[in-house]
Design brief:
The protein has three domains: 3-357, ABC transporter transmembrane region fold (Up-down Bundle); 378-605, Rossmann fold (3-Layer(aba) Sandwich), CATH 3.40.50.300; 617-756, Jelly Rolls (Sandwich). It is an alpha+beta fold. Helix 8 runs antiparallel to helix 9 (258-310). It is built from 24 helices and 25 strands. The chain is elongated and about 125 Å long. The strands form seven sheets. Strands 9-12-13-6-14-15 form a six-stranded mixed sheet, with helices on both faces. Strands 5-4-7-8 form a four-stranded antiparallel sheet, covered by helices on one side. It has a four-stranded antiparallel sheet with strand order 18-25-20-23.
């Protein structure tokens, strides 16, 4: 037996719906508190006010809808009266003339009602489509203006729900439930008034039908609302599991992780199934409950009417007509309750949509924003600190000047804040303190589009969107000619393989670029920046997915494209920055050195240590090799002679990993030692709840797993590639074979390992 307590805010106030879901109980839930009637009233008024604001531009359509509603009301009230007239006036007197008149009245009523219903339904569909279209457009515009921190704290599937089920429930409430609620209310009241003219005793008794239809909403409505919210939350979790699989299916299949992800999905799917069953039960039982309650009440009222008729209080025609009207009152009571439920159930979806639309935006141009036509002098950081959450600074007190027309590289260890600096320049995030100036103009006082339209950008993830290759290359410059995009593709070393695609530059690709390799996506991103031809070229690890030969040619193309432009690059690979005019070294969010390559090498500081760590790897047709001198820089091999190191270096083999691939699995038996030639890896340890916690990030030149050379012990952590990563690995079996020819190797390694403890 499992219990789960769920407390959900309703309408943004203090009132809550609270329940305990008991899976073993027949009903699936026990209600502890219900929503106060006063709160339901406030929420209904809130919805009406919100809909009034949305529908102001559709007043004419809603007037037509209201007229259509009145035709339905007229039909449902008048039709029983015609039946009464036939029974009381036509049949007793066998008057065929009056029967003809009655027939004409019936045809006219049917025609007017049918026409009104068609017009009403058509207008409601049109209004609903337009209102929902505007809501979606407003949400997309909002998403385009939200800060990076927003996306860090929200699931993608939750955002998609605002566009799908939330929007649909609001549309259903506004354009279907609300008009039908008005119609059923007017029909019910009109029928009661008509019955009163026939016999006030019968009308008085019939009023008991009005609250009966709402019994199911009163008794079961709160439970339905809570299970609905719980089902929605668990559905999002289940869809998130599917999304993880769709994003990572190649890695899952390659590393045999299907069982793990299947068990994760099964858990989420089972929880959603249970919650969905609870919600489905209440949704389906409510109308059944209401229907039987209404029909039971109607039967009693008919009995009362029959007694009145038998005592001569009303005629047979009046009794039959009243019964037809009573049937509409009963039906109206049930429909009013059902439509009110559909109307009121939009409160949470609407509030979720409005919460998104109310999110604070970033980088909104002020009415006095200054246009920037060019970068003529410099971009200056003055005491700039920034991060992704209040009080959490990723970069601190940055003071640096980027001269127009120069090339500047921000380098440093992984996690030092390089990419954050680039995000500040792109105005994806804003400074928490300090100021960034462009030619003396505060960034915040400049027009955002003026800055971005003059910036060509290559991001680390090399994103492509759904469309053709040509459309991806034209992003940022849709008017670019075929000749321009082909010339850019040639410079970015991607023209040759593009023309070999089945449709060449018109080849469709999806938003994940699954038909392209990581290197191909990266070259498209570089070519896209070349097509843009902007005054500022911003690059974030622009060649991390490329092989060494292609990397050299693309770097040469970047240098050529950068002539006469301001080039700003963030990279952890120092070889890319060697020929830049200035190199800014960042560590733990602060600038620690800056100068040219030669100046920084001579300074013998952090830059030189990083440079030495990243060098000593030689590329060849089979991958990479490590030099004996570079191998000696690894502490466990520091005491070995060059001859031994040369033999040891020959035993290393090249291994390549795509982002998300696991290099070492925690708990698995260790059998090899790794040196990262290039790329990034995360070091993760398992947590008590079955997740993983990141404890370190390693990059080019770092090494890991050395204990595996001595003994086959379980790995103490998982190491997973976070970028395209190339490693040199030394298997323990190869190492032990080498020990036979170098007897002192094992003793030296054991001594070095002991010294590290």
């Amino acid at each position: 037996m499992t219990n789960r307590k769920s407390t959900l805010p309703v309408g943004g106030g203090e009132d809550t719906l609270t329940m305990v879901v008991n899976r073993a109980s027949p009903g699936g839930a026990k209600l502890i508190e219900v929503t106060p009637v006063s709160q339901i009233y406030r929420e209904s008024v809130y919805l009406l006010q919100a809909y009034n604001r949305m529908l102001r531009s559709h007043a004419r359509d809603y007037l037509v809808i209201f007229i259509g509603i009145l035709t339905q009301v007229a039909f449902y009230i008048q039709f029983p009266l015609v039946i009464k007239y036939i029974l009381d006036k036509v049949i007793p007197h066998q008057d065929f003339t009056k029967l003809g008149v009655a027939a004409v009245e019936i045809v006219v009523l049917l025609g007017i009602g049918w026409a009104g219903s068609c017009v009403q339904t058509r207008r409601m569909a049109r209004v609903g489509g337009r209102v929902l279209s505007k809501l979606r457009a407003d949400m997309v515009a909002k998403l385009n203006a939200l800060p990076l921190s927003f996306y860090s704290n929200v699931q993608q599937v939750d955002l998609l729900t605002r566009f799908s089920s939330d929007g649909e429930r609001v549309e259903n409430s506004m354009t279907r439930a609300l008009p039908f609620l008005v119609e059923s209310t007017l029909v019910t009241l009109g029928c009661l008034i008509t019955i009163a003219f026939i016999d006030w005793h019968l009308a008085l008794v019939a009023t008991v039908l009005l609250p009966v239809g709402f019994l199911s909403n009163i008794v079961l409505g709160p439970r339905e609302a809570v299970t609905n919210s719980e089902s929605r939350r668990l559905k999002n979790s289940m869809l998130a599991s599917v999304e993880v699989f769709l994003d990572s299916w190649l890695m899952i299949r390659a590393f045999g992780e299907r069982k793990h992800f299947r068990s994760r999905f099964d858990r989420d799917n089972e929880q959603y199934t249970d919650a969905s069953a609870d919600f489905s039960y209440y949704v389906n039982i409510m109308p059944v409950f209401s229907e039987y309650a209404v029909n039971g009440s109607l039967a009693m009222i008919v009995m009362v009417g029959a007694i009145i008729a038998m005592e001569g209080g009303i005629t047979t025609g009046a009794f039959v007509g009243s019964f037809a009207l009573l049937r509409k009152v009963a039906d109206g009571s049930a429909k009013t309750a059902r439509y009110f439920s559909a109307f009121h159930n939009a409160i949470r979806p609407l509030k979720r949509i409005q919460a998104l639309l109310a999110e604070p935006e970033i980088g909104i141009d002020s009415p006095r924003a200054v246009p920037i036509s060019s970068l003529s002098r410099e971009i200056a950081f003055e005491n700039v600190s920034a991060g992704y959450a209040p009080g959490q600074e990723v970069v601190k007190n940055l003071n640096v000047v980027l001269k127009a027309g120069s090339s500047v590289a921000f380098v440093g260890p992984s996690g030092s804040g390089k990419s954050t600096i680039l995000k500040l320049l792109m105005r994806i995030i804003e400074p928490q303190s300090g100021v960034i100036k462009v030619d003396g103009i505060d960034f915040r006082e400049a027009q955002m589009d003026a800055i971005r339209s003059r910036s060509g950008i290559v991001l680390q993830d090399s994103h492509v969107f759904q469309g053709t290759v040509a459309e991806n290359l034209r992003m940022g410059k849709p008017e670019a000619t075929n000749e321009e995009i082909m010339a850019a593709a040639v410079r970015a070393q991607c023209h040759d393989w593009i023309v070999q695609l089945p449709k060449g530059y018109d080849q469709p690709i999806d938003e994940k670029g699954t038909v392209l390799s990581g290197g191909q996506r990266q070259r498209i991103a570089v070519a896209r920046a070349f097509v843009h031809g902007s005054m500022i070229l911003m690059l974030d690890e622009p060649t991390s997915m490329l092989d060494p030969i292609t990397e050299d040619s693309v770097n040469a193309a970047i240098r050529e494209a950068g002539k006469g432009r301001t080039v700003i690059m963030c990279t952890h690979r120092l070889a890319l920055s060697r020929n830049f005019d200035r190199i800014v070294v960042v560590e733990k969010g602060s600038i620690v050195e800056q100068g040219s390559h030669d100046e920084l090498i001579a300074a013998n500081g952090l830059y030189r240590r990083l440079w030495e760590k990243q060098h000593g790897f030689v590329s060849n047709s089979e991958g990479f090799t490590i030099t004996p001198e570079r191998l000696r820089a690894i502490p466990i091999f520091a005491s070995l002679g060059l001859d031994t190191l040369e033999d040891l270096a020959s035993e290393f083999v090249t291994e390549t990993y795509e982002p998300g691939m696991t290099i070492i699995k925690q708990g698995a038996s260790g059998d090899r030692f790794y040196v990262a030639v290039r790329g990034l890896v995360d070091v993760l340890i398992a947590t008590a709840n079955g997740g993983e916690r990141k404890v370190a990030e390693l990059g080019s030149g770092d090494h890991f797993g050395e204990v595996a050379l001595l003994r086959a012990v379980p790995r103490t952590a998982t190491v997973r590639a976070s970028a395209h990563t190339t490693c040199l690995s030394l298997a323990r079996a190869r190492f032990l074979r080498l020990v036979n020819t170098h007897p002192g190797l094992l003793a030296a390694l054991e001594k070095a390992m002991e010294a590290r403890k």
